[in-house]
Design goal:
The protein is an alpha/beta fold. It has two domains: 25-151 and 341-358, NAD(P)-binding Rossmann-like Domain (Rossmann fold, 3-Layer(aba) Sandwich); 152-334 and 368-385, 2-Layer Sandwich (Dihydrodipicolinate Reductase, domain 2). The chain is 31% helix and 22% strand. The strands form two sheets. A nine-stranded mixed sheet has the order 13-12-11-10-6-9-8-7-14. It has a five-stranded parallel sheet with strand order 2-1-3-4-5, sandwiched between helices. Strand 12 (315-321) and strand 13 (324-330) form a beta hairpin. Helix 4 (105-113) runs parallel beside helix 5, helix 6 packs parallel to helix 8 (208-218) and helix 8 packs across helix 12 (361-380). The longest helix is centred in the C-terminal third of the chain and has 20 residues, at 361-380. The N and C termini lie far apart (49 Å).
Length: 391
């Protein structure tokens, strides 16, 4: 196996960032469910943060949430996100939105309209129309909006983009991507993730948005043009699904109202074809590795057993050297940094330094357009054109 020493140019130089804790950012939580736990643990590690408020649609849930995490002095007596944002005595700098999917757009728009910076958990929204409205509010407000895609912070994901940007692959023309879980419908915390009224989308938005971002970010987020999509729910709607039976929740099959599998064939600007598949449950260990094919070389990115925001093993670059076919192994980059912590830190830094959003909505709008297109195509049973309104 040949080793191309020019790949040394892809190496990261680690820099330690000094955080100025003299000016603390005042943060409010909208939604205090399961994912909010990851947010608060990361925010609590930041020396320049003060968590001052939180709200949830369920009475008493916010108060119990902060108490469970040992955070004192947080105001929680709000019936809605609007009440909390309207309380100017809080002097909020930003909010982190950790609600269920169908409650992403409304709070984000209201917060931006009231001059607050926003960290919005993924998926961006449920529909493209919602995402467009959030982007318009962001543009009008001039505030920062970042979407919660922590896999972007992974050094291996950055390496994928570096390889593409280097020109080592030449012109990209075909990409295969996706991933999933053999048995992994998320219901241990209730039915929020699987009911249509709260989730709106299933595996397609939950982990599908990540695998789409991995490749779209690497190639510069070209505009999606058309999509032929498919989705199903054979496992989620089956009362005999093994995890339902094991947990005593076969009744969840009747409540399941989203997708547990989706696939699509997407045409992108620049003549790139994207072959996509994602699963919460399947009778397979993986639907395949991610492959980026180019005119000079191709990159194989091993899948993971459960999509976890990184790569499943060393990547392989297939290319030619002096007219001879060869391949270069790109070792996994191991880091002690927590990706969720990096998501929070980069958001805070962007606010304080006036920088760009770590994961800008202008990119994730295209991600959401694809997800929306897959859902619409699946329902229509035919290929559909992706039309993204002007922001």
């Amino acid at each position: 196996m040949a080793l191309d020493k020019s790949l040394d140019a892809f190496k990261d130089v680690q820099k330690t960032k000094v955080v100025d804790a003299s000016k603390k950012l005042r943060i409010g939580f909208i939604g205090c469910g399961w994912i909010a736990g990851s947010h608060i643990r990361s925010f609590m590690k930041q020396p320049d943060v003060e968590i001052v408020a939180g709200c949830d649609l369920i009475p008493g849930k916010a108060e119990a949430f902060f108490k469970a995490h040992g955070v004192q002095g947080v105001k929680t007596d709000y019936a809605s996100h609007k009440e909390m944002i309207d309380d100017k005595s809080l002097e909020l700098d930003a909010v982190t939105i950790c609600t269920y999917n169908r409650q992403h757009a409304g709070p984000a728009i209201y917060a931006l309209n009231n001059g607050l910076n926003v960290l919005l958990e993924k998926p961006f929204t449920v529909t493209l129309d919602e995402a467009v409205e959030v982007c318009r509010a962001e543009k009008e407000s001039g505030k920062l909006l970042s979407i919660g895609f922590q896999p972007r912070m992974d050094a291996n994901m950055k390496m994928i983009k570096k390889i593409v940007d280097s020109g080592a692959l030449g012109q990209i023309y075909y990409i295969q991507t996706g991933g999933g879980r053999r048995r992994g419908i998320p219901f241990p915390f209730g039915t929020t993730f699987i009911e249509a009224d709260t989730a709106g989308i299933g595996a397609l938005g939950d982990i599908g948005c990540y695998s789409l971002d991995m490749v779209l970010n690497a190639i510069g987020y070209p505009k999606p043009l058309t999509v032929s999509g498919y989705k199903s729910a054979f496992f989620g709607k089956n009362p005999n699904y093994s995890e339902y039976v094991r947990s005593g929740h076969s009744d969840y099959a009747e409540k399941f109202g989203v997708d547990d599998f989706a696939a699509a064939f997407i045409r992108l600007e620049g003549g790139v074809i994207l072959d996509f598949r994602i699963a919460w449950a399947m009778n397979l260990d993986t639907p395949g590795d991610t492959i980026i094919m180019g005119t000079k070389g191709s990159l194989r990115i091993p899948s993971t057993e459960c999509w976890n925001g990184t790569v499943g093993g060393p990547m392989i670059l297939y290319h030619e050297v002096c007219g001879e076919q060869t391949k270069t192994e790109i070792p996994i980059i191991h880091t002690a940094e927590n990706l969720f912590d990096l998501k929070i830190r980069t958001f805070l830094d962007a606010i304080k330094e006036g920088g760009e959003a770590p994961v800008p909505s202008s990119q994730i709008l295209y991600n959401q357009a694809i997800i929306d297109g897959i859902a619409k195509s699946a329902e229509a049973g035919r290929e559909v054109e992706i039309v993204i309104p002007e922001i």
